Amino acid sequence: MTTNSNLQRVLESGGFAVTAECGPPRSADPDIVIKKGLLLKKHVDAVNVTDNQTAIVRMGSLAASALLKSIGLDPVWQLVCRDRNRIAIQSDILGAAALGINNMLCLSGDHQSFGNQPHAKNVFDLDSMQLLGAARDLRDSGRFIYDSFEIPPAARPGLFIGAAANPFADPFEFRAIRLAKKIANGAQFIQTQCIFNLPKFTKWMKAVRDRGLADKVYILGGVTPIKSAGMALYMKDKVAGMDVPDEVIKRIKGAPKDKQREEGVKLCVETIQKLRKIKGVAGVHIMAIEWEEAVPEIVEAAGLR
Amino acid sequence: MIVGERKPFEEIQSLLRGYKKILLAGCGTCVKVCFAGGDKEVAVLASQLGIANNKAGVKARIDQVTIERQCENEFIDEAARALNGHDCIMSMACGAGVQMLAARFPHLPVLPAVNTTFLGLLDKQGMFLENCQGCGDCVLGRFGGVCPVTRCSKSLFNGPCGGSASGVCEIDPSVPCGWQEIYDRLKALGRLDTLEQTEPPKNWASARHGGPRKLIREDNIL
Fold first, then answer.
1. What is the ipTM for the molecules in this complex?
2. Which end of chain B, C or N, has fewer beta carbons within 10 A?
């Protein structure tokens, strides 16, 4: 189904898509969101708005998506299963579409024990697979979960639906099967976990192509510029689902302290150029964590604009 | 079984503050097996309280009784017989036992000495693991005998999240990834194909989410 999504338009026309990430602030200040959005606007096809990432309370992703939409960006509204049951989820999907949001990304969500509310009760009424199916069914058949009521065709939420994939998590052999399930449940695009281990990503992409999945979904490789050797070590040891090989840490460490950001950007650009050559990679997703100003430089240096 | 853990002594002391005639009531079933509230634990707590009270110059009578099963009314008679002018009962049973006593003796405060932790098993001496959340609709047959509701930190039904690494869960390296266990079991059974099917949204109404549950066995009603 064709939606009003700019991201979908770029991908379907065969373009190499570029998305970036905008983390909402830990406050009610809309200017921070707008400022980040303006920084990214001319350089990317769509902007992901994270949903209380690492389980730290931030401005709601739907509200921040609406702010970005108001200044002409195409937000990818992220939605996690951790904080909402199926009533809230389906209600928010209708609300997002009503606000003119065109893309959503369906995620399980980081466990609340990581964040600033470790005493919270989690929800996980649905998992990310079931969330995908629920979003697709609302859009395509106008049906709520286990309900015979039907939304009239003109009033259904016309969202371009995506999911995440982590090629670096275990069990590795299950990762392509999991991707196949996500596609079967409605995923039209995939944004992957940050790629630092290219050989492993290449191996995963081969498994994905062998199953014929690269033709059924648009895969955007996730990249993150490293700010410092300390950040690389932190990601390796503390961030769930990250695979940062020792040679990456060595390379950043090898640069003088005041040149480490430069080296991180360089590595990120090289990764993008290598990803472009992998068959089945339809774009890149740049996650410059609290460093949105690096995105224009990366996009330009990688020759993406 | 139901696994429990005795509350910290300071919390027990604060619950009992002001009471002068205390009946400690242990239970001889689950909490005895997990060393939280059987006759031995009752005796230990009684002497601990006695020593602390002596030290603080507090005068209080502490009596002990351990009954076979605090969650069954017919066994509660034994507790009733042990009651003799007590001004409170401290139950060392699970939450069900505490509530059974509270319902039976409405005129007396019934206080818990144990935290009921989970339904689980003894993995090895000194370590209990949670295995069941009593969701009311057992799915173990589809997951190689490993419960995704309980053993996965996010209760996922369609495979491991992106935080599963080297067999452990993202929340803590000491927590095994339940989905790695499901995967390994199904692989050993030659049934990995079942993981290709999508598990639809679960009906949680049979779990706690449907409100307090009731089980009626018509065939057992006298």
1. 0.94
2. C
